[in-house]
Structures
1.
Amino acid sequence: MFRLIVFLIEIILAAVLGGILGYAANPGRPRSRVQALVLLTVGAAVIAGVSSGFSDTTVGSPQGILIAGIIISTGLLAAGFLAREDNSSRRLLTIASFWMAATVGILVGVGSLIRAILLTGLAYYVLRYLPDVFHRQGNSQSSEENES
């Protein structure tokens, strides 16, 4: 019973963290991307959680193979979303957010919940606020050039 409760907490945490990443990467965009990142994060958490039950952690172990499969599958999934993007910088952001969601899911699945939360916080900051920092720097430089 305890393992089931822990599993449910991990799944809910993965869904919340995936939703945060989806919202940060796609504000005002189609909700299908948010849903895709939530499902990707939860799926990665489940697969990584199942694979963490394997005791062998050597190169080529079942856990390593499953986690590599998550990363490869994430790239293929992101490629499907990329086909609809016009903007090349938006394409990079899409694939990066998909891989970040997979990484967060893997961390949740292997029990590194604090790392998953910290990584999500960092990704949220980068996706939501870092572009504004660079935009403000560009505006202040151009206003200084206009004054001289």
Note: DSSP finds six helices and no strands in the chain.
2.
Amino acid sequence: MRDDMTRGISVLRACAVIPRISKNDWLASSRTSRWLIASRAPVLVMTFSSAAIGGELALLNGPGDGVAWFACLAGLLLAHAANNQLNDLTDSTLGIDRNNDFRTRYGTHVLEDGLLSPRQLLRWIVVTALAALAIGVFLSLRIGDAVLWLLGAGAFFLLLYTYPLKRLGLGEIAVLLVWGPLMTGGSYLAAAGTWSHWAALVGLVGALPPTAVIFGKHIDKLAADRQIGVRTLPVRIGAAHARRVVVLMLGLPYVCVPLLVAFERLPWSALIVMFALPDAARAIRIHRAEPPAACPADYPRNVWPLWYSACAFVHARSFGLLLLAGLLVAWITSRL
């Protein structure tokens, strides 16, 4: 009978949480579970929402190309996974994550925890990135050269986000552009065969909550980043100003979505995102105050020391999935 301490991590759990995992549990896990852990799979839900929203916007305007849409969705998820893996490899190689108590406390770091060697992780990155690239080539052959511009932009941000963009204080802007026009606009292009400025604008609105997550994470890490010379935007502008920016990003979608509905750029059912307002209000309340000095008694210890980013992620997940649900309702009702 297998010991409880070496039962491994299931695929479902690897998709739901970023676990703290021992070497024995790692070895007892399936290859798929290991890949998901190394890719920080739970955060991929934000990419899923952004990409799926673009496809649903296209379907509301016509039959669309379902094969291209699903291929684009898969390619973007693989690209995000490759970026997360590359982020860990780069930060470990540069010494940023070495002996970094902050980074290794809130989730497994496959290199720093000795679960993979740099060469092994590099192989995973190459395979994952090549799979994403292959899908991009397929889409360019199916749709046309317009995809190449998006493919090139995606490769640029994937390879350069961790270094040097994040160190130059441009990482947060890159995230806004990637989760907005690039993902939502790109998936619209894949499904509809044409570019839509309105879809890109909707994507920009939808990208505000995920960008708030990155901002929040960089606020959480501000002291550690400043000490090792990582000049993220919160480091450059200071924690107080960064928190004000996050509050703005958390509230702005609830102004923009009703306006887009009023101008008939989103269906009325998109207003279902208002059910995410309690999560937004909680995140705003948290961002308006200083963080606690130590983990509160009622706070999950497997999440600490992440504070601002944790509440921002809860909101981003609910907002993205609710907007997706609202568009799905509009598509279903249009077929009745």
Note: Confidence is low (pLDDT under 50) at residues 1-5.
3.
Amino acid sequence: MTRLSVNLNKIALLRNARTLGIPSVVRAATIALDAGAHGITVHPRPDGRHIRAGDVHELARLLAARPPAEFAREVRPQQCTLVPDETAAMTSDHGWNLEREGGRLRPVIAELKALAIRVSLFMDPVPAAMEAARALGADRVELYTEPYARAYGTTEEARVLAAYAASARAAQETKLGVNAGHDLNQVNLPRFLSAVPGVLEVSIGHALIADAIEAGLAQTVRQYLQAIARGTPARQARP
């Protein structure tokens, strides 16, 4: 089944509003993993608005003691997702333009792969761009899913989903793995996974942490795993 990686940026953002160190990013990661999450995602930024360098090292130590779990970002992570995120941006809001930015990505990808790190590129759902991502040396793409979340439940949903499905197939034809993330939630996630083939991992933070305010973090992680199961076609489900 598709793996769930829990993004903890919002936990760190809340912690940074005070100086007492609560809520704890490491404690949140522990709860999420104990509830069945397959990995942890963080996105350190130069301004330190949420995740800080110290968090990365503490999480790396935590994940080292849990071999099946994956940690996505720094300190020799299993996976590093490269995102074209401007400093002033509220959050990630577009994928890479590889025609314009491929030249500066190539040496970064090569450096990460030399460290035995799986490299994923944050990409818009454009089938024609998948071959270029593979040519740069990427192992996976993470499809930017906010356009799907906005189209969910509207007359545009089917058209938008078709673009994601085509992009996933195009990626897989070039031997790229497919991840997805951004504004996925318990409601729209099953339909996305049932329509888009072979999604290996979803990284979810904002909606999951918002749900956890009401249901608790452990229960919310279990609910998202159930949502993934509902969206997984029978042919992909584990026995």
Note: Residues 3-231 form a domain with the TIM Barrel fold (CATH 3.20.20.70).
4.
Amino acid sequence: MKSFRSTSTAAVWFAVLLAGAIAGLAARAQSPPMGDGQHGTDHRHMHGGAPPVGHAASGQSDDPWQLVSLPDPMREHMLSNMRDHLATLDTVFGDIADNKFDEASKLLEERLGMSSLLLHHAAEMAPYFPKPMQDAGTSMHHAASRLSIALQNASVAQSFDSMREVSVAIHDVTSSCVACHAGYRIH
């Protein structure tokens, strides 16, 4: 059986890698549209990366991200929410690294879990989103609540299996983020 210390370290490194991926996605989603109808700089193209399969590197009609238009105050609110989501995940990953599972669980549920929907004005925002985008958001909030529970379990039973469940739950949260950021941009 692996020690909890090495399991916790592995989970932290996994969390750090995920946080970096989320930060890149959040920066991408927050890039302002450019004057030619394209959105902000896509660093994959700058560094020789290929555009998504089946899409050209330029031109709005070839844009792989579906544009979701929001009134300015709602757009700013949504961007603020996404920044808060990222900051919350960053704090949660730090708490996991410090074995503060209960603190991480509480913060996660309050800021990202199903309990956070009123805070984020989800009911007012959702009608502006395509159904798959709504589903990705709902999936993320459900996954965050499941991660909160996994963190509570890890606080009680600090084992390899409990940390594996935390890692699976982290992946579920970030997969929802990735799905939304891969398919949509806001304006």
Note: Residues 4-31+67-186 form one domain.
